[in-house]
Amino acid sequence: MTGERRAPRHGQRGQGGRRPAPRKQGPRKPPVTDPARRAALDVLRAVTDRDAYANLVLPELLRQRRITGRDAALATELTYGTARAAGLLDAVLGRCVDRPLDTVDTPVRDALRLGAYQLLRTRIPTHAAVASTVDLVREEAGSRVAGFANAVLRRVSEKDERQWLDELEADTADPLARIALRTSHPRWIARAFAEALGDSGDELRAALEADDARPAVHLLAKPGVVSADELAAITGGDVAPYSPYGVHLPPGGGDLAESEALAEGIATVQDEGSQLVAVAATSAPLTDGPDERWLDLCAGPGGKTVVLGSLAQVSGATVDAVEVAEHRARLVREVTDDLPVTVHVADGRDPGLDPGYDRILVDAPCSGLGALRRRPEARWRKQPGDIAELTRLQGELLASAYRLVRPGGVVTYVVCSPHLAETEGIVVEAARRGGAEILDARPLFPDVPDLGDGPFVQLWPHRHGTDAMFCAVTRKR
Ligand SMILES: C[S@@+](CC[C@H](N)C(=O)[O-])C[C@H]1O[C@@H](n2cnc3c(N)ncnc32)[C@H](O)[C@@H]1O
Question: Is the pLDDT of residue 13 over 70?
Fold first, then answer.
């Protein structure tokens, strides 16, 4: 590995024969790196060391350090971009480090990822990407390791992303592994998408690419409180294409924490796909009987309960909201305190409520493979083995819903995942055992195109601009 000399910066001495300055003792110098990259690295380290969520840590850290404007935008782009692309970046770095990458200390590895991301996926000039990363490594680990980082990143910079991909792809004949590499997804997730789409070519690539792009923030205009048109005018966003209550904020559209609409409680942050499935749950056709008692069996933190509660208020119904985790139940209470919603801390598999509900929503705990675009690091943290445990719980929750719904009542099953084991694999068997018929869900999504052959609805980022929500509507016989 060869190191390259750089122009001296920040008080470094050149190597032109002058005596090096004596090494200073005493307190460490304050960091010299720019605040955006420092913030990005600190968040990436929190993700690695503490299993933190980048999208929760970053906004807080920007606020604490009063990082705003262009610096905040750069920190956001670098943090989320690096976290999303970690698999590809590691593959490239693995070619540029002369020992196994996992033997490199994690702070240094995180910094190398950050540097490699800038080199491969941004227009930041090479010298700036390398020098700023080397500064970070120097702060983290001293000058010797900084020299190592410099050498590694110089190697990374010898090729652009396309050339690296060509080189890495040449090592595998597996088309799925290639697509996964190009779109920065683990292979098992690419496979799950392929199976759900019934396609492992162009459409799969489009789905994974859309899943790799940073999504717009979607708002829910609280039904009965403010219209989507009004909310769009207040926030400067656009009325959503499909949800009657949706607004899309422009990319980088301001600090959400400062949004008056959120502070006043007239809007909440909610993906348009989540809005659509919640509306579908309230509009699925019942057979005979009343339409008054609704149940949200997995309610926390209450996003869909707000939709159910608001529409229940309009139609004169009431909602019982069940959530097993006390702290999440508290969140449901907070967002529904002005709605006809009663929150119960209970296990949805046996919540101790009287049966006879007209409508039940089972928004089951799931792998979240459908919302990876909103959780940058999640794709590298999840494991295929997570699915089996979830499917057992999903089946048990749905079975409980069939015990609680009245004949002719509707159970809507939703997961934010396209994984077939969590979607069709659960519903077909549970509905059969629960004595329910599966309805065509597509008419409950009016004007939404490309819904396939039914009866289930699977939304997709590349088709609908939503998270990949799955929705099955069933009716008890
Ligand atoms: C996908 S989230 C629901 C999201 C929510 N419906 C919303 O729109 O904000 C699943 C929720 O189910 C809860 N949960 C997990 N196991 C449960 C159980 N056995 N009974 C009830 N709730 C459960 C989790 O704590 C989590 O809050």
Answer: no
